[in-house]
Each structure stands twice: as structure tokens, then as C-alpha cells.
Write a structure and sequence with these properties.
About 50% of the residues lie in helices and about 20% in strands. Strand 1 and strand 2 form a beta hairpin. The model has no long low-confidence stretch (mean pLDDT about 90). Strands 1, 2, 3 and 4 form a four-stranded mixed beta sheet that branches. It is α+β, with helices and mostly antiparallel strands. It folds into two domains: about 70 residues; about 45 residues, no CATH class.
């Protein structure tokens, strides 16, 4: 799922990059595949929909802004966590399990506060993680 071979035949690495949209918005922590051999870059399929939605929501002429994509995409969040020095030793499965537990706890809190919008947002975040896992 998270491994990819470049068109040049070499394995690609996952990196977090800054994407600049419409010369106004800096989007940090966008996960991309990068080939260290030919420097080709492609966006992870798991985050394309979230990135497209963010760009659509920003509109054609957005105001100057900086956005951390890890606040928008759970995959970006998890990859950022996996590359953080304090958590690099933890298996990715543990990071995913911890995040799922955290989101479920927040969903219980949202439900107890009867915050339907927040609960729906959390459900969407949870589905970002589980959708690719369930599909494989």
C-alpha cells in the first residue's frame, strides 16, 4: 500500500513536502512519493481526495495563509508522527492504533456533548485511516 516503484524502476520514498497553492497558501506536511534517483514526485493516493477538497475549499483566489496538512489528513498526521524523532522507534501499527483510540475517545466526548458536527468530523477522520486498510 505505501510502497511504490518509480517509472525509472527505483523504489520511491515517502517524504513530507510543502505545497504552495495559488502563490498564497503554504500547505506543510503533504505526503508525497519521491524518487531519490530521478527526483520524480507523486502525491500519495491515500491523500489525493483530502488535498483536492482542501484546494476546492480554498477557492481560486485564496488569502495568504499557512496550513498544516496533518490537521486535514489523518495519513499526513500519521506520517508526520512516524517521522518525529520521539516516535520513530514505534511501529507504524502502534501509531495507527493509538490514533484510532484517540479519535474514538474524542467521538465519545463529542457524542456526550451532543456536538453532531464534531462527531461527524471525527467519524470522517477515522474513515480516512480505516478506508485504505479495509480495502486491502
Amino acid at each position: 500500500m505505501l510502497q511504490k516503484t518509480c517509472e525509472c524502476g527505483h523504489p520511491m520514498e515517502i517524504r513530507l513536502r510543502k505545497v504552495i497553492y495559488a502563490r498564497a497558501v503554504e500547505v506543510d506536511n503533504v505526503p508525497v512519493y519521491m524518487c531519490p534517483h530521478c527526483r520524480r514526485i507523486s502525491i500519495l493516493p491515500e491523500i489525493k481526495e483530502d488535498l483536492a477538497r482542501l484546494i476546492r475549499d480554498l477557492g481560486l483566489e485564496p488569502e495568504r495563509n499557512a496550513i498544516d496538512f496533518a490537521d486535514v489528513s489523518e495519513w499526513a498526521y500519521l506520517i508526520a508522527q512516524a517521522t518525529d524523532e520521539s516516535r520513530m522507534h514505534e511501529p507504524i501499527q502502534q501509531l495507527i492504533a493509538d490514533r484510532v483510540d484517540q479519535l474514538l475517545d474524542l467521538m465519545l466526548l463529542a457524542r456526550s456533548l451532543e456536538d453532531v458536527a464534531w462527531e461527524a468530523e471525527l467519524r470522517g477522520r477515522l474513515s480516512q485511516i480505516t478506508r485504505p486498510v479495509l480495502a486491502s
